[in-house]
Amino acid sequence: MSSPNQPADNTKSVVKEKNPHNYRKVGFSMIAVSVSLVLIALLVWSVGDNYHFASDIMAAQEMDAMTPKQGFNVIYFDEGQPVGGKFKLLDHAGTIEQAHELQEKYAKQNEAEKGQVIVFDATIDDNNKLVEDLRAAALANAQAAPKAIPTPTTSAQPVITVNATANKTNQTTITLRESVGINASNPSK
Questions:
Q1: CB distance 89 to 98 below 8 Å
Q2: Which of 34, 146, 159, 163 could potentially form a cystine with 175 if both were Cys, beta carbons 3.0 to 4.6 Å apart?
Q3: DSSP string of 27-46, one letter each residue
Q4: Angle, in degrees to the nearest 10, between helices 53-66 and 124-144
């Protein structure tokens, strides 16, 4: 349709003239994109050294989910499971006595398992401390356990075996035996 001021045969061009205000909008958009990229770069820079960042967040959420709002939760804790599966809610108790009874009951049921049955109270800090103490105790037990070092039967290095025996006169006899073998996986050594 034509307006009364324009003749009917005058057609408007499809491409409109560029509005100078569009340049301003594009400029502001570019600034917003660059600022967001800088913020992402700063976030990556600050978190980049902590490659456990996501795992720590998941572990904190798991701890928060297992902490009761009131009363006590009986939890099965297995350090060997991945983050998100370390805790399993077994039961809830209103008093600490009930919680300890339930803890003993579930500990007997889960004797063959590697994890432990623990009681969480309503404070996250106490629960974090409990879990950290369990981890420290498990680490101390693992470090205190004697480690068997296998003696190689075939190697290029000499193997010295020490046999010490004590006789009735409180003297110790030490016998040294040296053997040299060839490493089957690398005969040149």
A1: no
A2: 163
A3: HHHHHHHHHHHHHHHHHHHH
A4: 120
Each residue of 24-49: pLDDT tens digit?
788 889 999 999 999 999 988 887 77
For the stretch 103-158, pLDDT in tens is 999 988 887 778 889 999 888 898 889 888 888 888 887 777 666 655 555 545 44
- What does R_g of the chain's alpha carbons equal in angstroms? 36
Q: Report the alpha-carbon distance of residue 89 to residue 28 in Å, rounded.
A: 52
Number of domains into which the chain is organized: 1
Chain centre to alpha carbon of residue 156:
41
Specify if 1 maps to a domain. no
Which domain covers residue 125, as residue numbers?
60-141
Residue 99 lies in a domain: yes
Instruction: For residue 163, tell me if it sits in a domain.
Output: no
Closest Cα to residue 131, out of 55, 73, 79, 184? 79
Q: Is the residue at 171 inside a domain?
A: no
Answering whether pTM is above 0.85, one says no
